[in-house]
């Protein structure tokens, strides 16, 4: 049975080719001082930086920049963005990039006027925001995280070996996001497949929980099927608009709060993946793919009916003549074959994990209670060993 919920997602999306033309209209709603945040240079190479700055200039904005937002943005980088935002009293933070830049913009948004250390307050103590928030807008260039339409911000503290996400409320979600699938054509293949697997796993995290018959799970199955079908086309034809636009749209819905409505959710793969990221700085989607199969096989017996349903409804496996266990395993085997096609990481050694890191990674992985099994630290260690 669906639990009770209130659903509101305030992010206005502009989707499609030439969606960037909508940026000027959005900028009218904000004051004249804009903080432009972007990554390590891809937007300069592909010409997007010039287009965005031309629009900002035409709208009469004064622009302050934080370039060099790295994948898995760090707490030091967060402090830098807070200084620039505060010193220039900016009215809007415009993120132009992937999930890292969008997450970063939200982290700066809540931290610039925070009286305490934002790492301690938001990421260690998980407290709510109690200071003014700077509005955020996004121009998305890389698909996967859903950051363009959610309140998530994941920050890494390299010295403390912790990578932690805070899911902020709807007041922190981007006010608008521009989603033009053609802006993702220049994403390297390795990042494209990591993003696709990230989005797929967001759906898994919300699907593998609960035993009831609810609409949210049917939506999840449809999104997973769309991602699998479109990814197979995008692998062969990276500039296939239909495939890239389907992937972009599915990834946004995979993590914009909809799939969590009225049901419990798991997120253990992400907790383990984030801890691996804190130790290795590996690409987020790859940290998930590298532990997923070991994790799902570890917990399969606790959610057998749902794993069987996954096999039939997502992978089209014929249940006739199969035991519940065999059907569930056939679904995971089909997922494994698809992961091979994508070429995503399937062990953590290839991400740079060594034996001496395993205890620390297990310490850094939060133990979630919403999935089919609440792990112990020892379970996490077993899964990590099985993922080597
Ligand atoms: O930095 P640049 O030069 O822009 O290059 C980036 C980066 O190297 C490149 N890229 C992005 N768009 C491109 C492009 N290269 C060429 N052409 C383009 N159009 O791709 C690389 C990866 O970018 P990044 O933003 O790091 O990737 P992603 O979107 O996967 O974001 C990962 C971050 O998001 C967090 C992850 O933990 C990680 O820190 N997540 C955020 C979530 C959320 N807000 O809800 C949920 C996720 O589970 C995830 O944890
Ligand atoms: Zn993710």
Strand order of the largest sheet: 1-8-5-4-2-3
Low-confidence parts: none
State Rg.
Answer: 20 Å
Determine the mean pLDDT. Answer: 98
Q: Specify the overall morphology.
A: globular
* Number of helices, counting only DSSP H or I runs of 4 residues or more: 15
Strand content: 5-15%
Structural class: alpha/beta
Order of helix and strand elements from N to C terminus: EHEHHEHEHHEEEEHHHHHHHHH
How much helix, percentage-wise, in residues? 40-55%
* Bound ligands, named by name, code or SMILES: 5,6-dihydroxy-NADP, zinc ion
Number of strands: 8
First-to-last CA distance:
39 Å
User: In this structure, how is the largest beta sheet organized?
Assistant: 6 strands, parallel
Domain Alcohol dehydrogenase iron-type/glycerol dehydrogenase GldA: 10-181
GO molecular function: alcohol dehydrogenase (NADP+) activity; butanol dehydrogenase (NAD+) activity; metal ion binding; methylglyoxal reductase (NADPH) (acetol producing) activity
Protein name: Iron-containing alcohol dehydrogenase
InterPro entries: ADH_Fe/GldA (IPR001670), ADH_Fe_C (IPR056798), ADH_Fe_CS (IPR018211), BDH-like (IPR044731)
Task: Note down, in words, how this protein is organized.
The protein has 388 residues and is of the alpha/beta class. The protein has helices at residues 23-27, 42-45, 48-58, 75-87, 99-111, 118-124, 189-207, 215-236, 241-254, 268-280, 284-299, 304-313, 324-342, 358-364, 377-386, and strands at 12-15, 33-38, 62-66, 92-97, 136-140, 152-157, 162-167, 176-179. 47% of the residues lie in helices and 11% in strands. Helix 10 (268-280) crosses helix 11 (284-299) and helix 14 (358-364) packs across helix 15. It is globular and about 70 Å long. The site of zinc ion has 5 residues, from helix 7. Keywords: Oxidoreductase. GO terms for molecular function: alcohol dehydrogenase (NADP+) activity; butanol dehydrogenase (NAD+) activity; metal ion binding; methylglyoxal reductase (NADPH) (acetol producing) activity.
């Amino acid at each position: 049975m669906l639990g009770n919920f209130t659903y509101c997602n305030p992010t206005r999306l502009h989707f499609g080719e030439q969606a960037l033309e909508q940026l000027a209209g959005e900028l009218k709603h904000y004051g004249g001082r804009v903080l432009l945040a972007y990554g390590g240079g891809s937007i300069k190479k592909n010409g997007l930086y010039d287009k965005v700055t031309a629009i900002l200039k035409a709208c009469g904005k004064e622009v302050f920049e934080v370039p060099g937002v790295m994948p898995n943005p760090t707490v030091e980088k967060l402090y830098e963005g807070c200084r620039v935002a505060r010193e220039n009293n900016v009215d809007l933070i415009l993120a132009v990039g992937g999930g890292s830049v969008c997450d970063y913009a939200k982290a700066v948004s809540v931290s610039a006027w925070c009286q305490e250390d934002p790492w301690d307050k938001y990421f260690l103590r998980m407290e709510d925001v109690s200071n003014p928030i700077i509005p955020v807008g996004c121009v998305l260039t890389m698909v996967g995280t859903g950051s363009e339409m959610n309140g998530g911000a994941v920050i890494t503290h390299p010295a403390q070996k912790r990578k932690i996400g805070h899911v902020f409320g709807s007041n922190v979600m981007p006010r608008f996001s521009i989603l033009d699938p053609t802006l993702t054509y220049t994403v390297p293949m390795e990042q494209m497949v990591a993003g696709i697997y990230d989005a797929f796993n967001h759906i898994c995290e919300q699907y593998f929980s609960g035993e009831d018959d609810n609409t949210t799970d049917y939506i999840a199955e449809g999104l997973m099927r769309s991602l699998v079908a479109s990814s197979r086309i995008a692998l062969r034809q990276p500039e296939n608009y239909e495939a890239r636009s389907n992937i972009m749209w599915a990834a946004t819905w995979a993590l914009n709060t909809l799939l969590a409505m009225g049901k419990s959710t798991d997120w253990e793969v992400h907790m383990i993946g984030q801890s691996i990221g804190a130790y290795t700085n590996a690409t987020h989607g790859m940290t998930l793919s590298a532990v997923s199969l070991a994790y799902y096989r570890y917990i399969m017996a606790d959610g057998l009916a749902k794993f069987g349903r996954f096999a039939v409804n997502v992978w089209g496996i014929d249940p006739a003549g199969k035991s519940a266990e065999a059907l569930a395993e056939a679904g995971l085997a089909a997922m494994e074959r698809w992961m091979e096609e994508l070429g995503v990481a399937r062990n953590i050694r290839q991400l740079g994990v060594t034996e001496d890191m395993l205890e620390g990674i297990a310490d850094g992985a939060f133990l979630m209670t919403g999935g089919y099994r609440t792990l112990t630290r020892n379970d996490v260690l077993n899964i990590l060993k099985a993922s080597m």
